[in-house]
Amino acid sequence: MRYGAPGIIAKSCPSLRARASVIEADQTQVTPEIARYLMSMRLPDADSIRADELSEKARLGTLTEAETAELDSYLHIGSLLGVLQERAGRLLKNNDSLSRQ
To answer: 23 — phi, psi (to 5°)?
Structure first.
C-alpha cells in the first residue's frame, strides 16, 4: 500500500492537517541518520496485503464495522508516516544542498 502525497492528503483531511501542524511545529533537530531511517520505514508485507484487501472490500462496499475500524487504523498510520517522511525528505534535500555549497 502506497500513501501518495502526504501534503495533499493533509490539506484535505482536518485531523491530518492537525497532525502535520504538530509535527511541523516540533523544533527538535532531526539528524540525517534519523531522516534516512524514517524514509526507509514501511508497513510489514502482511499488513500491506491486509490493508489492500480491506481497501478492495471498501471499494466494493462490503466492509464490516470492525474492518472499517481496522482500515482506518492502517490509513491513519500510513498518513502519519507520510507526514514524517515528507519532513525527513525535505531535511535530506536541504542537507544535500548545503553539503554541495
So the answer is: -65, -45
Supply the pTM of this predicted model: 0.68
CA distance 25 to 83: 13
Closest to 81 in 3D by CA, of 49, 45, 51, 37:
37
* Nearest residue to 10 (alpha-carbon basis) of 67, 73, 84: 84
Q: Residue type for 45, please?
A: D
Question: 32-40 vs 65-100: helix axis angle to the nearest 10?
Answer: 140
Question: What number is the average pLDDT over the span 49-54?
Answer: 97
Q: What average pLDDT does this structure show over 78-99?
A: 86
CB under 8 Å to 28, separation ≥6 — which residues?
none
On the 0-12 / 13-18 / 19+ scale of CB atoms within 10 A, 88 is buried
Q: What is the pLDDT of residue 5?
A: 45
Residue 8 has pLDDT above 50, yes or no: no
